[in-house]
Specification:
The chain is mainly beta. Helices cover about 10% and strands about 35% of the residues.
């Protein structure tokens, strides 16, 4: 835990935000007044399909979870800043990886051999380009650096599907206060669970049935898993702002709703100890192009995170 806290702080997080991304922290669920949230884990972590439970505070905080809205607001807008209402721009580009190829991650894929195409290596990369670069799928991209205002989330939910042998994504980004909806498009039963704080109630995603609703209990890093398929693991990041995305298998990403002015575009990958970033001046109504390159150095090949230009345990900035 100490090492991860150090890595989070190096990426610009204070102690409270670093704590919020870790399991087992006694203070993570406290409000501004220090009182612990009294919601049960069953209410927070899972929910059957039903009526939407969405509340929006005056400052623009969206909460589509059973968690008290004041608690969500205290996390995503602790300084009670005004919501940004000015013009916006967009950023898109391609995330590529250079350096060592993705190492194999041997697992038991006997239940569905095609799953090896998704989870058979530490990360998914495309064909090699003329300079050795490969498109990097499932990379995390965030935009940070704006000050003096709060950017509210506008979408109630983030959706992910189960198709073929597993989830359609290996990395999913969302905003704390959104709900996660898992839709099973296969003919088999699945049991999606959000770790590290799973609900004591087993949620079943029925074949081609209604989406299962799951609610991250804290900001930070979570894992979406299936209790019967150990290979199927999705890295879920619940951010404190809406300016985030994960790259497609082609490496492509796009983030809309950027406030005008100077910001920073940053990218990392859950299984690569390195990151890349670029400064950007956002203009109203403009779709800016920012490509980023991440260098992978496999540790078992004698490399280190420093060789890759990053830091061990690199984590994206939540705020």
């Amino acid at each position: 835990m100490t090492a991860m806290l150090g890595a989070l702080r190096r990426f610009g997080l204070g102690t409270a935000l670093a704590c919020a991304g870790l399991a087992g922290c006694a203070d993570c669920n406290k409000s501004d007044g220090g009182a612990a949230d009294s919601s049960s884990s069953a209410d927070i972590d899972g929910g059957a399909p039903g009526a939407s439970n969405v509340t929006v505070l005056e400052a623009g905080t969206l909460n589509a979870t059973p968690r008290p809205t004041a608690s969500v607001a205290a996390a995503v807008n602790p300084d009670k800043l005004p919501a940004y209402t000015g013009p916006t721009g967009s950023v898109e580009g391609t995330i590529t990886v250079i350096g060592d190829p993705a190492p194999a991650t041997p697992q038991d894929f006997s239940r569905c051999p095609d799953a090896e195409k998704i989870w058979g290596h530490a990360f998914r990369e495309g064909p090699r380009g003329p300079k050795g670069e490969r498109p990097l799928g499932d990379a995390i991209v965030v935009v940070t650096g704006y000050k003096g205002f709060y950017l509210p989330e506008t979408q109630e939910a983030r959706a992910i599907s189960i198709e073929g042998c597993g989830y359609t994504l290996r990395t999913l980004t969302m905003t704390f206060g959104q709900r996660l909806e898992v839709k099973n498009l296969t003919n088999d039963f699945w049991s999606p669970v959000l770790e590290p704080r799973p609900s004591p109630v087993l949620m079943m995603a029925t074949p081609r049935g209604d989406a299962v609703r799951i609610y991250p209990k804290t900001p930070g890093h979570h894992l979406l898993v299936d209790r019967d398929r150990k290979y199927a693991v999705v890295d879920v990041w619940a951010f404190l702002h809406p300016l985030h995305a994960s790259s497609a298998l082609t490496g492509y990403y796009r983030i809309d709703g950027l406030p005008v002015g100077k910001v920073k575009v940053q990218s990392t990958h859950p299984n690569i100890d390195a990151n890349a970033e670029a400064d950007l001046t956002v203009l109203a109504g403009v779709v800016h192009k920012v490509d980023l390159v991440i260098k992978n150095v496999n540790r078992d090949a004698g490399g280190s995170a420093a060789d890759a230009g990053g830091e061990a345990g690199a984590r994206p900035i939540l705020r």
